[in-house]
Amino acid sequence: MNDPDLNKIVESSSEKNRNFFTAYLGILIYVQAVIFATTDLNLLLSTEGLKMPIIDLTLPLIGFYVVIPLFIIALHFNFMQNLESHHYKLMQWQDTYPDREVSREHIQPFLFDYAILENKGQMVRWVVWANSLLCYNFGPITLGLLLIRFSDIQNPLVTVWHYLVFIFDVWLVWKLRLALQDNENRVVSPTKASIRLFFRDIPRYGLMGVFGILILFETLLTISIGGTTDGYFVANVQPLVQHIRPASWFFPSITIDPSEVVWKPDKDALEAEAKIAGYNDDLEKYFKEKGKGFLPATTSLRLASLPGQNLKNGQLEKVRLQGADLGGAQLQGANLAMAQLQGAYLGGAQLQGANLMRAQLQGAHLFRAQLQGADLMRAQ
Fold first, then answer.
1. Which one is predicted more confidently, 86 or 56?
2. Rounded to an integer, what distance in angstroms lies between the CA atom of residue 152 and that of residue 111?
């Protein structure tokens, strides 16, 4: 017989978890909005900070991408712990119905409740799928997107951090599903439960499996491209990735469209600096002789695509630019001393007066490059 007190407990629990679910989903959607709003240009100039959507707030980009995984893990764990407790109450409530079949009109309007209790209707399979996606897997998906987006900076330490957090959250989801089985009084050994869950859920979680493989592949790519020494990269990694360059959309590398502006001088600051240096209003002369141009936020720009960009007087000393596309780039007066430019494309690049002292230019394409006055002392 149905217990009125238990009805109230379940109703209250469903309402609270529904509200928690709404807040949880809203926060993760917002984080994903930040991820999709982060462009390669933001990553390249991350010292300017990351402007948050909707709210007028600018945060350190690297700080956001390093700290936010901890917040997602804490939020997701709290949400799953509440779901497990709520599921236990649902099972106790379901036992009070004949044949453990809860009538549809008694089920609370909460996605999780429908997925657990409803077994009739045209939408059952879609409800189960949506519950799996939003209640269980939305956290790992968000963490995976964080990894993919930030990998373009080619920082292997942060990427490995993202991957470990992703794996930990996937493990938490697996533990939750085992706990839900325990609540359903299915007495099986952990090993058998794990095997049964694996084979039963292969079709349902096929997309998650593909996503997990993609995350692993992106992690290994980032370590190979951004975390290897110059000698190893040039000898082993670069020849390999060049053969699959047509599929470079998934490479962890910066790609800037020629129509975008990577750098332009701050006229007010330039005027002040010129006056202090005694150049008065001759800004062009001051900039040519002493001004500093583009400064990337990362020293690893392997396979980067920066064609036709204004990089005059760019501060690119010791920057790793192996395989980068700098075709037609304006690099007049740029400091490329000791830069790693093996296999880089510099066709038509303006390198007049550039400092290429001890730069590594093996295999670089310099067709029609303008090198008048460039310093090539001890360049390889």
1. 86
2. 36
Q: Measuring CA to CA, how many Å separate 202 from each of 157, 199, 235, 370?
A: 32, 5, 40, 58
What's phi and psi for 201, nearest 5 deg?
-100, 10
Alpha helices in the chain (DSSP H): 4-37, 40-44, 61-94, 111-117, 124-131, 138-150, 156-183, 190-200, 206-226, 230-232, 238-243, 267-276, 283-289
Residue 373's Cβ-side half-sphere holds a number of Cα atoms within 13 Å equal to 10
pLDDT band at residue 71 using 50, 70 and 90 as cut-offs: very high
The Cα–Cα gap between 44 and 301 comes to 9
Helix %, strand %, coil % of the chain (to 5): 55, 5, 40
CA 128 vs. chain centroid, Å, equals 28
Instruction: Report the C-alpha gap between 324 and 115 in whole angstroms.
Output: 50
For residue range 220-276, list pLDDT tens digits in order: 999 999 889 988 988 888 888 877 655 456 788 888 888 888 777 666 666 665 666
pLDDT at 66: 93
The tokens for 318 are 């010791």
Q: How sure is the predictor about 284, in pLDDT bands with cuts at 50, 70 and 90?
A: low
Query: Any idea which residue has 């809203």 for tokens?
Result: 26
Q: How far is CA 86 from CA 39, 76, 197, in A?
A: 40, 15, 21
Count of beta carbons in the 10 Å neighbourhood of residue 125: 10
Alpha carbon 78 to its chain centroid, in Å, reads 23
pLDDT in tens, 8-29: 888 899 899 999 999 999 999 9
The whole-angstrom separation of Cα 319 and Cα 64 is: 24
Give Cα 280 to chain centroid, integer Å.
Answer: 46
